[in-house]
Structure to design on (193 residues):
């Protein structure tokens, strides 16, 4: 057995003491019942045999046992009520501690600082996203110009490439549409370049 006991061990020992106390009072009441029966029997026996002093002694002993029984019943009832009240107070205390802890957590969750921090982070993220979008647009524009300048320097025309594509497809209708679209793109590129 260790010298230092946990809170649970101490609480368990307290409960054992309370149960033992109630059990001891129950045992004492049982003994007093037996004593009352015994004194009553002796009082009847003394009266039957005309023994006045013994009758008086048996009656006194019976009164004493009944008085003790009454006191012990009162003590037992009071003790049981107090144990019940203690349990109820412990439950109330745990409830209040839980509510206090819950309230603190709720305050933390609804703290204005958190809203301000989240709002600040959101604004920074949106600003960063806008900057990234602008950079992406510039990059795409630059890469389009780069591809356009590279493809313009080649010996193969867009028309030649489209005829190769059309041959691979084996279709004239859609290929003609692609040709006209590519011709439009090529003319726009020449106007811009």
């Amino acid at each position: 057995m260790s010298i230092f006991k946990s809170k649970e061990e101490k609480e368990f020992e307290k409960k054992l003491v309370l149960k033992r106390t109630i059990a001891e009072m129950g045992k004492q009441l049982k003994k007093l019942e037996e004593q009352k029966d015994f004194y009553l029997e002796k009082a009847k026996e003394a009266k039957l045999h005309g023994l006045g002093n013994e009758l008086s002694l048996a009656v006194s002993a019976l009164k004493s046992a009944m008085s003790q029984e009454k006191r012990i019943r009162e003590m037992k009832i009071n003790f049981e009520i107090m144990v019940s009240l203690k349990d109820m107070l412990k439950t109330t205390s745990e409830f209040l501690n839980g509510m206090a802890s819950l309230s603190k957590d709720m305050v933390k969750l609804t703290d204005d600082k958190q809203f301000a921090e989240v709002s600040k982070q959101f604004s920074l993220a949106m600003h960063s996203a806008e900057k990234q979008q602008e950079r992406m647009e510039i990059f795409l524009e630059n890469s389009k110009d780069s591809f356009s300048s590279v493809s313009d320097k080649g010996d193969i025309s867009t028309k030649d490439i489209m005829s190769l594509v059309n041959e691979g497809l084996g279709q004239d209708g859609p290929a003609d549409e692609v040709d006209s679209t590519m011709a439009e793109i090529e003319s726009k590129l020449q106007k811009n370049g």
